[in-house]
Amino acid sequence: MATDSALIYGTLDTQASTAWIEAQAGITMAMLELNWASFEPRPGIVSASYLATMKSCLQAYQAAGQRVTLGLGLQNPPSWVFSRPGSSYVDQNGDVSTEADFVFSQAVRSAAASYLSLVAAHLPMSNFWAIRLTSGGDGEMLYPPGGTYWAFNTAALTGTGLAAGMTANPYPNWRPGRPGLSPAQIDRWVNWYVGGLANVTNWQMQTLSRLGFTGYYQTVTPGSGTRPGELAEDEQQNLADIETTGVGAVWDRYYSMLGDKTNVMAYISSVADRSGDDDCGQDTDTCVPLTSGTMDSWSATRWITRIASQYGLAVGGENPGYGLPDSLNSHYTSTSATGMMASALRQARSCGFTVFYWAHDVHLWDGTIPFSRYADMIGRTHHRTGQLRPPAG
Q1: pLDDT the model gives residue 242
Q2: Three-state DSSP class for 189?
Q3: Could you report how far apart the first and last alpha carbons of the chain are, in Å?
């Protein structure tokens, strides 16, 4: 795959204190992460002190000449959200998640929509080049973890209080892991379940567009997820043991179900996670059908890039953060040519990324891995800011 010479470099959770230094080194993208609970501690009430801090950070990035990506912070809802009806996910065993249910609960979405309106009123959307989209309850585009399926609260089962655009569980009496449905019926159920993530994505894009946002929407999708061949096998087993499907990570289906793909960026939050030996994209990748088992050995980065090309989406991403998971820490801290940073930048360039963010900014300055390494690796490439707004239309 052709190298993108216009690759933009950034960091996650960018520190205002070092923004100018980073900008001078070619890191021209900053990321501002909000926290809903801190922003709106009581319904309709904005914390003046927290808002002042966020505005100060934003101004520091802009003064340094950086563009800014916004994290909405929906995964950190204020406690009052959980007083809303049907505010939490419930799995097939009746267990209740601690995450707010943005997929099925209209009450949660209504509260979030009010919050987003407050954000836009105080931090106009014109300030932001991109907005990161997650499932709401999770920090990525996922249902809660745990190896179960989170589609069994009242709204999901009966439609009462169900979020707009969603339909109720098509087989409310069936539970994953049990017999009772044919593989074709289970496949329909999987489409409905994964479709919930596409629906909450579409809802966020529509809401933010009405509030004046015109930049990129980054859909934060981690890992390889469940690929087509694996899903077909697991449907034969009644979805008995497939954790990646339980969190909704069936990325070829998710991206196919997004209604409006305008300015959508397939965002890979696991670049250089050692899947597929951190292999790089190839010019011939687009010739391989999405159903081909050939891609089972590919890295998550190469796989999601192939999906993005199917639907004409831009691509961007970040590496796994330090300690996320601990098993990758030595890869993270390695400054060698096979370390995480070098591998991530190779993947980003070979896969034609528009933007890459190092996760996280603080670890470039606290001794975990030297900032000079990132600056040096950027300096060794022909760097220019390139196109800083998505194409019209």
Answers
A1: 76
A2: helix
A3: 25
| The one-letter amino acid at 38 | S
Bridge partners, residue 179, by sequence:
none
Measure the CA–CA gap between 15 and 34, rounded to whole angstroms.
Answer: 13
pLDDT digits (tens, 9 = 90+) for 12-21: 999 999 999 9
Report whether 329 contacts 323 (CB < 8 A): yes
Task: Sort strands 67-71 and 27-33 into parallel, antiparallel or unpaired.
Answer: parallel
Q: Nearest to residue 197, comparing CAs of 226, 173, 234? A: 226
How many CB atoms lie under 10 A from the CB of residue 212? 10
Beta strands per DSSP E along the chain: 8-11, 27-33, 67-71, 88-90, 96-100, 130-133, 216-221, 264-268, 314-318, 355-358
Q: Is the pTM of this model over 0.70?
A: yes
Cis ω before 382 (30° cut-off from 0): no
Segment among 45-54, 171-180, 376-385 with least mean pLDDT = 376-385
Of residues 85, 67, 93, 49, the one with CA closest to residue 8: 67
Q: Which residue has the tokens 């009496």?
A: 173
DSSP secondary structure letters along 32-99 = EE--HHHH-SBTTB--HHHHHHHHHHHHHHHHTT-EEEEE--TTS--GGGGGSTT-EEE-TTS-EEEE
DSSP 330: H
CB atoms within 10 A of CB 211: 15
- The two structure tokens encoding residue 207: 């809401």
Helix (H, G, I), strand (E, B) or coil at 173: coil
Q: State both tokens at 233.
A: 């096998």
Tell me what percent of the chain is helix, strand and coil, each rounded to the nearest 5. 40, 15, 45
* Predicted local confidence at residue 389, as pLDDT: 43
Q: Are 137 and 131 in contact (CB under 8 A)?
A: no
CA angle 363, 386, 201 (to 5 degrees): 70
Structure token pair of residue 125: 């959307």
Is 162 within 8 Å of 199 (Cβ atoms)?
no
- DSSP code of residue 162: B
Name the pairing type of β-strands 130-133 and 96-100.
unpaired
d(CA 241, CA 250): 15
d(CA 102, CA 111) in angstroms, rounded, equals 10
